[in-house]
Structures are given as structure tokens and as C-alpha cells.
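haha ok so turns out i had the wrong file open the whole time. this is the CORRECT one, sorry everyone. sequence first:
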Amino acid sequence: MSHPNKVPPRLTTEPGWPARESWRMFGIMSEFFEATERLSNIQPAVSMFGSARVPAGHPYFTLGEQIARRLSDAGFSVISGGGPGMMEAFNKGAYLGKSEAIGLNIELPREQFPNTFQDISLSFRHFFARKVTFVRFSTAYVVLPGGFGTLDELLEALTLVQTGKIQQMPIILVHTPFWRGLVDWLRDRLVAEHMIAPGDVDLVQLVDEPQHVVDAIFDYYEKRGFPSAEAKRESMLTL
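then structure:
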């Protein structure tokens, strides 16, 4: 039912708000600029994701460290969120290996503080600038057990690949017992109800062993070839 005489309240802006918003935009631009300057020569790189709440000594922590070490020794820089938990495991494994450990740190009210295993450490205030940086410099995503943030990064990557906004890349889910229910749900609900195409489920791989993660990435690019730097740059322009 309409209310023709009801006028919606007018939005009011605080004095100086436009100027503050303009300066905020400069801050966002500076985050993109610094990331480009410091990470432009780190290819190839793998972004790894997992829970910030997993302590050292946990089987997931050990698994993440082992995978990152093998990736690092195989010539891949490893990018993580830079914080505690699984992010520390990823950075530690890479730091002790032959390639660079990179942390994309984010300012949060709780949980996030930089771990000490970072060859390159960047700090972000804006989540979306950090998200773009993960995608922009990655040739693969490796996703271990985690919570909302981990799922957010996973679904973001799947959406960008599915819609053709970025070039297809390996998206590897590690530890089948944790992820099997999600993959089955994608097939049993989303595919069955025509929310996604059957082939979209194949955008993810389930892997359990550290060496199998490395092998899966090499196998993927042996068939397709690594994208050129120019092609990757062009694909990023429409993000």
C-alpha cells in the first residue's frame, strides 16, 4: 500500500564529509599502489587461506605449514592474510623454504596481528583492496579449513572464475573430511536446482596430501600453460 503524502527523510551530510571521503579514496589508491609496487615481481605465487583460530601444534596448522614449505621449495611465493593461526602456518612454511612469504595484513578490531614470518608485509585498512591483491598476484588458491573469512575468499574466487572476470586457476580445497559436505551440497542443491552449471563444481579440487597440492598446481598449468603477465594484467582491469 502506497502513502502518497509520506515524504522520505532527507539524507543529511556532516560538514566536511565530502572532503573526508575524497581523502579516503586517496588512502584506498595508496593501498593498491603499494601492493603493485612491492608485489609486481613475485610471480608465480599461491594464495593460501584458513582459520585464524587454529593454534600451533594443531593438525591443520602442521598440514598448512607443510604445504606452504613444499610450495616455497617448488618455486612459488606464498601469500597469506599475514595474521595468526593458519596464516602464520602458511607464512612460516614459506619463510623456511626457498621462496618468499608474503602477508597481506588487515586492520581488525580483534584477532588480527601480524605474524613474524613475512619477507614482505603489507597492511590494509580496506577489505576489498586486500581481496583484489590476493587475486591479482595469484596463480592458484589453496584453501584449508576455516570460518567465514575463509569461505568468503573461496566463494569470491569461484565467482570471479565462473563469471570470467579472472582467468581460470586451480582452486584446491585441502582435507576432504572438512570440505566434502560443502562440495556435495553444491552438487545436490545448487546444481540440482539449476543455480549453477554442473561444470561449476569442477572448479574446485579436493586434495589431502601436501605433495599432491603442489602436483595439482603443476599438472594444471602443464596442460594450460601459465598465463602471460600481460594477459593477467588485462584480466584484472575489469575487477
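The chain has a mean pLDDT of 89.
again sry for the mixup
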